[in-house]
Amino acid sequence: MQDAICCRDDIMIYLMKQGLEPNPAFKIMETVRKGKALKDPEQWEKYKNMMKENNVPDWYIKSCEKIKYMFPKAHAAAYVTNAFRIAWFKVHEPLAYYTAYFSIRADEFDSDCMIFGKEKVKNKMKEIDLQGNNATVKDKNMYAILELVLEMYERGFKFLPMDLYKSHSTKFLVEDGQIRPPLNSIPGLGTVAAEGIIKAREERKIYVNR
Fold it and tell me: Which of 28, 106, 127, 178 has a CA that sits 20 to 30 A from residue 70's CA?
């Protein structure tokens, strides 16, 4: 297992340890990580002979031929590190996690079916399930958000109603241990319109203060 290919760097490092020069080791790595090992049979045969001359086992060469794409080690490590960070927030700072996720990733967040309790969320999920392959792309994208909203409810967290004077135009906010959705989560109310409401609200406050 210690010789199994896990990321693209492994290929070059392993081949150099076997005795290949850095330049051909790099070229083989680049060929393999792009999934091009069998797309140029003549060139790959040359690489295979070079590897065999340096006692690279057949199973390793066959593994190279099956690879379609490979991450670099740093890229893979960054993904794993980021996953741990996200997991930590999800466990220890759930409200921060949910508000960040909904604000950044939940383009299909629909306040009509998501902020009024888990039963309404479950009903919407059943509705999409019943559509099967006929479900729209929008509904399919919404399903993943519904799952997260349901998870949030099951953990005991709730949404506050949208408020003309407290809701942000696009960001979900933590307030009194609950989450207040933004104005643009109202179906049919886009971001531009939501920002217009916020602007009018601010101008009204300035007027009142005078």
Answer: 106
